[in-house]
Amino acid sequence: MLNYLKTLDRRIIYLFVLVGVILPIVGGFLFPVQSSPMTDSVVKALKELEPGSVILVSADFDPGSQAELQPMLLALLKYCFENEINVVSMGLWPMGPTLIDNAMDSDKVRISKDRAEQLMLEGRKVYIIPKGEAGTEQYLEERDGKIVVVKETEREEVGDLFDDAIYYVKGIRSLFPEGHIKYGENYLAAGYQVGAGVVILDLVASVPGALKTDALNSKPVESYPIMNGIDTLKDIDMVFTLSSGSGGIKEWVIYGNGRSGVKVCGGVTAVSAPEFLPYLVSRQLAGMLAGLAGAAEFEAATGYEMGEGIRGMTPQSFAHIIIILFIIIGNLVFLVEKYSENK
Amino acid sequence: MKRQIPLLITFLSAITMIVFYFLNEDLTKDYKSGIFDWVRIIGSFALLIGIVNLLRVHFYKIRRGGKEAVYSYVLVLSFFIITVSGLIGYGKRGAEGIVGASFLTFDWMFINVLRPLQGTMFSLLAFYVASAAFRSFRAKTKEATFLLVSAFIVMLGRVPVGTMIWDRIPVISNWIMTYPTAGAQTAIMIGAALGAVSVSLKIIIGIERTYLGGDE
What we know:
The structure holds two protein chains of two kinds. By secondary structure, chain A is of the alpha/beta class. Helix content of chain A is 44%, strand content 19%. Chain A has helices spanning 2-6, 10-27, 37-47, 66-82, 96-105, 113-121, 197-205, 207-211, 249-260, 273-281, 291-301, 308-342, and strands at residues 54-60, 86-91, 108-111, 126-129, 138-143, 146-151, 154-158, 166-170, 187-192, 238-243, 264-268, 287-290. In chain A, the strands form two sheets. A six-stranded parallel β-sheet of chain A has the order 9-2-1-10-11-12, with helices on both faces. In chain A, strands 3-8-4-5-6-7 form a six-stranded antiparallel β-sheet. Chain B has helices at residues 4-22, 25-64, 69-89, 106-136, 142-157, 160-165, 169-204, and strands at residues 93-94, 97-98. Helices cover 78% and strands 2% of the residues of chain B. Chain B contains seven helices and two strands, in the order H-H-H-E-E-H-H-H-H. In chain B, a hairpin with a 2-residue loop joins strand 1 (93-94) and strand 2. Chain B has a two-stranded antiparallel sheet with strand order 1-2. Chains A and B meet through helix 2, helix 5, helix 7, helix 10 and helix 12 of A and helix 2, strand 2, helix 4, helix 5 and helix 6 of B.
């Protein structure tokens, strides 16, 4: 037995982790999420922003870190547009701005049945995955007061919305009425900015000078109303970076906060969070969301109970417990072996 | 001259930036903006050089043939498909966002190919971490035992199940993160910063020349 455990095939460990992650996802049960001081500081900093404030959201990551950072981005954008905080987006990583575009327009944003009904009545396109029917895209339509599920070209009339189905819209924009997020007024996409630290120093000197044109129309950024009164980085109310490596949160703190004093908050991957703790303790960083747990805590604190972060906490809990159990088993084997040798 | 000119450029650029750092922002704003534009243009070219080099390496592998050439075919093909689709297809956008992202457009490939692939690659880490932790995370010494116990507490403190086991676990986990971890990390950062200053000085005054390439 001891020998078996000592030479345990790694595929058995992989299998345990796989089952531990899949079962809670299939089961669909959720654990209650409690906030941590790190997340509280982000929420506090955001709550200090008045309606009409401008936040610069910098997506400094790529799809490799999307499992942890994309839920933060979705929850952040949702919070901003709900609270009339205007968003200027950019990215220090080439794929970052496309991830923001996806969050705005195409990522699945899960909603409750009640919200689905409400959005449908407002004329928004609501998608549905009936229980046990993943695959072809289906959406809901309201025709003469009747709810119709549209699947490819087929239309099936249903009496009421199903209780056990999954409802979602595509992109944060779909959660709001037409015209709530006006491009150039409430939201501006500045796209990818090459140069990392240099871009931030450039922003410190002049925001329109650094961003130059927007990504959608290639027009000078200063021609949009959202940029009224914004000259240097100091005029931005907050920088929120979603960062997974170099060209990210560290540069925003050193050059952005250090040179202009702008308030910097960030979301980082769990593995890199300890590296930035000193900035949080010294208050150079106003708040930090760490990993999927940070995303879940932020979702819970901002009332987004259907977020990916909260749902991700159950498989993550199981994965952590499995890893801890394997470490304990490994150590028991080690101690028994050591005891036998000494004997 | 092949070495002297780059060394001189490095020295002058570094000294200029150091002096500008200590001068009033209004005095240097215009000059700085010009320098930053240079840096960003050079950065863009570095990206281009990276692409050219990547393609050169993979074209060579394709020419050489062999079992692994198939990966190079995939890379080159994917590169051209996504570049062309990006140039002609990216932009089906309006003020209200993406308008009709269809098959083979940049957005479709980004959402349905690149994002799942990269996400999958990163998620494999969980499996490797579990296996590596089982094999090597041993309480061999007193220090290793402290590390092990701290790791357990932080791992449990960062997930809701930790609170369910004992509601003090997240509190202890936060304490570990805020004090011992942040303290040790600060020390590491100060050490690294001093090292960076020393290496930078060596580069500025031309003692450290490995960035120029060659043997020197």
